[in-house]
Amino acid sequence: MMNLETYNRIKKELGSEVGLIAVSKGQTGEKILSLYNQGHRDFGENFLQELVEKKNQLPDDIRWHFLGNIQSNKLPKIIESSYIIHSISRQKIYEILINAETNISTKILLQLKLGSEKTKGGFSENEIINIVKNHDRNSNVSIKGIMVISENNIDNVTRKQQFSQAKKLFEKIKKINNEIEILSMGMSNDYQVAISCDSNMVRLGTVIFGKRK
Fold it and tell me: pTM above the 0.90 mark?
């Protein structure tokens, strides 16, 4: 069950400094609309097809954030459908993006790999620094910051260390490129730890919407 009281409590807890992406994958249009009617506009989807269907059915002023794994053949459609693409985690995808023949301005976050979990994608710190240093500011693609997903089976002390590491990198790359402003870290199970490490964008699904259908 969706609980608007929980949503409003979390919004209050986050304050105006921390952006909230409501992760709506697997959730109904009806649930999305009830948040929309509270004034919420930023929603996150993991699958292109679902994003496109919802985008076509729901109000035009919703800002759709693409959070999922990216297949290169789907990239043009992802560019077209997304307000920000959060999950640029491979050099190949970044290169296709910057060479895409499109007039659409694209905002992206680079995914930093935390820890050593095999299933998590992402760049190393040095790779991110190099991308930011060499990024052509005149391209249609603007790098707005970094995104991280903490490892699954770790304690909060380790998690805090990983989030602090991401924060240090964020401060470094902000000095290289003044368009960088987003440090997206924290999900339903760890957003409070993320905020204590200065995350300014969290991605919350089940804690707001309840279990997926």
Answer: yes
**Residue in this structure with the two tokens 């009806």, named with its chain if needed:** 30
Contact 132, 142 (CB under 8 A): no
Structural domain range at position 43: 4-209
Query: pLDDT tens-digit profile of 128-161?
Result: 999 999 999 889 999 999 999 988 888 989 999 9
List Cβ neighbours of 48 (8 Å cut-off, separation of 6 or more).
Answer: 66, 68, 74, 77, 78, 81
Looking at the chain, the whole-number percentage of residues with pLDDT higher than 70 is 98
Instruction: Give the helix/strand (H/E) hosting 44.
Output: strand 42-45
Query: Quick one: 163 exposed, middle or buried, by C-beta within 10 A (0-12, 13-18, 19+)?
Result: buried
Kindly report the CATH number assigned to the domain that includes residue 138.
Answer: 3.20.20.10
Q: Which residue has the tokens 């994003």?
A: 51
**Tokens 């440090």 sit at which residue?**
183
